[in-house]
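Worked example (supplementary).
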Amino acid sequence: MALEKKYPAGDRGMVIWFTGLSGAGKTALSRSVSLQLTAGGNKVEILDGDEVRESLSRGLGFCREDRDENVRRIGFVARLLARNGVVVLVSAISPYRQSRDDVRRAVERDELPFVEVLIRAPIEVLIERDPKGLYKKALAGEIRNFTGISDPYEEPESPGLVVDSSSESVGESTARLMSFLRRAELDQIERAQDHPEQAIESADRQSMQEGC
Amino acid sequence: MALEKKYPAGDRGMVIWFTGLSGAGKTALSRSVSLQLTAGGNKVEILDGDEVRESLSRGLGFCREDRDENVRRIGFVARLLARNGVVVLVSAISPYRQSRDDVRRAVERDELPFVEVLIRAPIEVLIERDPKGLYKKALAGEIRNFTGISDPYEEPESPGLVVDSSSESVGESTARLMSFLRRAELDQIERAQDHPEQAIESADRQSMQEGC
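After joint prediction of all chains, the assembly is encoded as:
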């Protein structure tokens, strides 16, 4: 496999892209997966949509053009990190199929794996959860361009994994994703255990926003 | 040294920030240094100002606020890379001291080295060189906010290295910078030679722009 030649064990980057509506559980799942991957000896960074709005995309809004530009920037940074051996967990609504597919193509051009994970739950469940009170505002017409309410969401046509957070715990989803990576021979846990001296990095970070 | 504990040889990131007027030689020097560092076993990425205008800062202009935002974004990405073991060469006019110092503080908070390199040449020399024809346009008033002509440039107060590209070749400057890194014990060439299996990465990339 070409990748093996370029990326020694424990030093092969990839992009795992979590997409789905607000409140579906992207952030929780990416954090949980991050802990597993870090424990397995991988370098991991989380690029979280809300945080990236502040660090890379201040001034961008939520019309399609700005959302696509935001996804493009996240993709650019994810590629830079992944080609340097980092497992990048992107957690972003990223509602448009085209822009996600553009990132996938760019990552794969670098001969790096791109794994798309769709996280969903019935809209009634999301409206019921509503941890940030955003659905309430969107339904009251106080937020425009709100994905799933007043803005479209395009599901991936063939995601690597589909998670329904209304019927599965974060722990269960994490285990399924780790198992998926293992089956796809994308995990580095076994190999990393043979190299305990490898650098272990972790993740942290900031907050968000503005309008088209 | 704290850094040694966290970053194994050949896997310690840092940021080398080339600042100076347009045409001073930032891009040429960063490319030359990149070759040396890559040959020494380092992972290297170049974040070039012109290219970053397209990949991270599309829509930003050249007023102070936008220039500072551009530098902030470059700094954010440089930190992400550096803390994952990449030597990041930033080549950007970055005319304002405050914004460069903000990045330095953020990088140093991560316990990573930040080396500022000032590249300069007499303004008459730059006007004479003018490879992109930009000085001509700026002097004719066709470009506003042009650093060094119609916009300020604030030199670093204590740069790690000062390069005068009118009196020194790119090769000489490269040798001086490598020697500086060695003296500061920031180079990893000797150590990297003990670890030939380390991943070697390189750099490539895009183009620019818009207005305040």
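Two points are worth noting when inspecting this output. The beta strands of chain B are 14-19, 43-48, 86-91, 114-120, 161-164. Chain B has one domain: 10-193.
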